[in-house]
């Protein structure tokens, strides 16, 4: 994948999470210095699990909305923020992400995507799931470099990263549990490698709140690219199916049945292979 850098404002500052609103306004003034503060509307978003998110638009142009995201304290332990910015730029280059305006030490400012997040009901609607498959196929078709194709799949990279966070390097860890968990990851790696699922550029976190549906434009968009990277093509699809069960109140009876999966996959493969959707 090419690493073409867009002209993004980079600011060496940390926004205080205790005064997040004031800090977000300061970032906005750097991105939109011509906006007068009296005519700016602020919306606080609450869907983020670990971050604080603010949306701003000027009353004279509601179509130009700027999001300012302030990362949650401690999230850098398990999230690679440098990789996230690279992913953002790669995805935008291939029309899979909005415009990134500004990078500051503990957050980002970027273009707002109009629409609503999916629900456990809407993700099953035929119009919606076909659009999700189309958007996923577009992301999976982003060209990979030779180095990318030789890299370790995100599945194992993230598993080992999270295990290291949980158990650490201290002798106080539950050695039996630690050994068992690492062993399971190794077994999983052996089994999945044998399947020879293609490596593609994947999102790796397609929970319902990370998928935006714009009914007027008949389009879906993916947001939040902290975990994006090279991974098994099937892993992104399988993860998305798991997310049908929801997050706050998980109900695995909502996991798609075989008939739904086959219908979803036929649509996805038609988009991935650029063939007609007739009878799919």
From TrEMBL:
One of its GO terms (cellular component) is cytoplasm. GO terms for molecular function: ethanolamine kinase activity. It comes from the Eukaryota. The keyword Lipid biosynthesis applies. It is an enzyme of class 2 (transferase). InterPro entries: Kinase-like_dom_sf. Pathway: Phospholipid metabolism; phosphatidylethanolamine biosynthesis; phosphatidylethanolamine from ethanolamine: step 1/3. Keywords: Lipid biosynthesis, Lipid metabolism, Phospholipid biosynthesis, Phospholipid metabolism. It holds the Pfam family Choline_kinase. Belongs to the choline/ethanolamine kinase family. This is ethanolamine kinase. It comes from Ciona intestinalis.
């Amino acid at each position: 994948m090419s690493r073409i850098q867009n002209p993004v404002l980079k600011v060496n500052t940390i926004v205080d999470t205790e005064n997040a609103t004031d800090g977000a306004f300061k970032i906005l003034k750097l991105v939109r210095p011509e906006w007068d503060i009296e005519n700016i509307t602020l919306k606080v978003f609450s869907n983020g699990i670990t971050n604080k998110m603010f949306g701003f638009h000027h009353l004279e142009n509601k179509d130009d909305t700027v999001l300012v995201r302030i990362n949650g304290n401690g999230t850098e332990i398990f999230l690679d923020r440098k990789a996230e910015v690279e992913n953002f730029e790669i995805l935008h280059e291939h029309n899979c992400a909005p415009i990134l305006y500004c990078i500051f030490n503990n957050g980002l400012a970027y273009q707002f995507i109009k629409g609503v997040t999916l629900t456990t009901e809407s993700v099953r609607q035929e119009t919606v799931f076909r659009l999700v498959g189309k958007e996923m196929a577009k992301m999976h078709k982003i060209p990979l470099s030779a180095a990318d194709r030789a890299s370790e799949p995100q599945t194992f990279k993230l598993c080992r990263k999270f295990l290291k966070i949980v158990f650490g390097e201290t002798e106080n860890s539950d050695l039996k549990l630690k050994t068992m968990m690492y062993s399971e990851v190794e077994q999983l790696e052996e089994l999945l490698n044998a399947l020879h699922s293609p490596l593609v550029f994947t999102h790796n976190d397609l929970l319902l709140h990370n998928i935006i549906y714009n009914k007027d434009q008949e389009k879906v968009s993916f947001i939040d690219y902290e975990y994006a990277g090279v991974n098994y093509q099937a892993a992104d699809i399988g993860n998305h199916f798991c997310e049908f069960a929801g997050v706050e109140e998980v109900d695995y009876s909502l996991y798609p049945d075989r008939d739904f999966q086959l219908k979803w996959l036929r649509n996805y493969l038609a988009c991935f292979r650029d063939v007609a959707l007739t009878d799919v």
